[in-house]
Specification:
By secondary structure, the chain is an alpha/beta fold. It contains ten helices and nine strands. It has a nine-stranded mixed β-sheet, sandwiched between helices.
């Protein structure tokens, strides 16, 4: 990886200048499927729908809004069709939490606490949350939020001075294959068009709402990560919630950081992942219409990388992970780069591959921590 020359302060200042707000949209209504033109090449992330090219930072916000509308309308679904981000506005009614268990873990390294946090309308939604805080005597800590209960990477995080928070996203929407179940979040917001990935992303933002209320967590230094299907959710979380300074999807593949266009043979395609017998319910109900017509997508997954800018995105994958779609990951990474260049943060678009298979292992997590240390603490960027 190249050495970083940009500080977190620089990036946060740029976000302030741009007044980025993923819940503000002034873009025109995206075209219907029948009216979409075919595009064999990856669409240009800096080309406005009016045909004008974005050449100045001050014009990026409008293009950001257009791109966000596209990916929500066609791929992930809106949390609310009339008010696209109404339930993504942080914070969202978190007024209570229940401490379930507390103990010291990892040979005295960590203070572990298990909570139930309540949110949503009348606090009728809840999710279990596990929180590992380093017992290092510091008042506040940066935090890594990860999907799925299980603290296999918590020790690594705590050893480096990071708090580690993980939650059960399936408490908000079940993880199903071949059939769809209306989960608690979808039942609470029946007008929403979101699929499971967007529900899970919304849940991660609610976790950050809770962490924001604590005196021992510094959410200005927060990281979101997940693996495979929750790698997709981590990416969408980072797009929709700019409180996350670093976004790290791992093994996210189709619907994650891998472009659909120009994919190599043997990878998971849009058509495969959106089959009724597989994972149609992860996405907007009509996303599968692009299965045999990928070139009609008005975007591709490089838009998702670009929508994280000017913050940091690090995608981590494995060479032997066939379905991660190495070619698609690399082409999306390259196609998003012009946005990072425009915003003056060319080194905030990061990619990493390791030997091995489909998993989020200690080497992946250590790269995450190395990058976080570089941006938050000014340490050398890993090569």
């Amino acid at each position: 990886m190249p050495r970083n020359h940009f500080t977190l302060h620089t990036v946060l200042s740029l976000i302030t200048v741009l007044t980025l707000n993923s819940c503000t949209s002034t873009s025109p209504t995206p075209l219907s499927f029948d009216d979409l033109p075919a595009q064999t090449e990856l669409p240009d992330p800096l080309l406005r729908e009016n045909g004008k090219r974005v050449k100045k930072v001050k014009h990026w916000d409008d293009r950001h809004s257009e791109m966000l509308d596209m990916v929500l309308k066609y791929e992930y679904g809106y949390p609310d069709f009339d008010s696209p981000c109404i339930v993504f506005d942080p914070p969202i009614n978190i007024t209570s939490s229940e401490l379930i268990e507390t103990s010291v873990r990892f040979d005295g390294l960590s203070q572990f606490s298990s909570y139930t946090i309540n949110f949503g309308i009348d606090e009728k939604l809840s999710t279990p949350l596990h929180l590992y805080i380093p017992k290092d005597g510091k008042v506040t800590h940066p935090v890594i939020v990860r999907f799925g209960l299980g603290g296999e990477h918590a020790r690594l995080a705590n050893e480096r001075g990071y708090a580690f928070a993980c939650f059960d996203q399936t408490s908000l929407d079940p993880d199903t294959e071949g059939h769809d179940i209306v989960g608690p979040a979808q039942a609470m917001y029946p007008e929403a068009t979101w699929g499971s990935v967007a529900v899970w992303a919304w849940g991660a933002s609610r976790v950050l709402d809770y962490l924001q209320s604590r005196d021992d967590i510094d959410i200005t230094q927060s990281v979101i990560t997940g693996h495979s299907r929750t790698g997709k959710a981590a990416l969408l979380t980072g797009v929709l919630d700019d409180r996350f300074a670093i976004v790290v999807p791992n093994g996210s593949g189709a619907g994650g950081v891998a472009a659909f266009r120009g994919s190599e043979k043997g990878v998971e395609t849009l058509e495969l992942i959106t089959r009724e017998s597989r994972f149609k319910s992860w996405f907007h109900k009509d996303f599968g219409q692009f299965g045999e017509h990928v070139n009609k997508l008005p975007f591709d997954q490089h838009f998702m990388r670009a929508l994280v800018a000017p913050r940091v995105i690090l995608s981590t994958d494995a060479y032997a992970d066939q379905w991660c779609n190495r070619k698609g990951v690399q082409s999306a990474w390259q196609a998003a780069q012009p946005v990072f260049d425009l915003l003056g943060v060319p080194e905030n678009n990061l990619i990493h591959f390791r030997e091995g298979n489909h998993d989020q292992l200690a080497p992946d997590f250590n790269v995450l921590l190395d990058v976080a240390d570089a941006y938050f603490n000014g340490k050398p960027m890993p090569e």
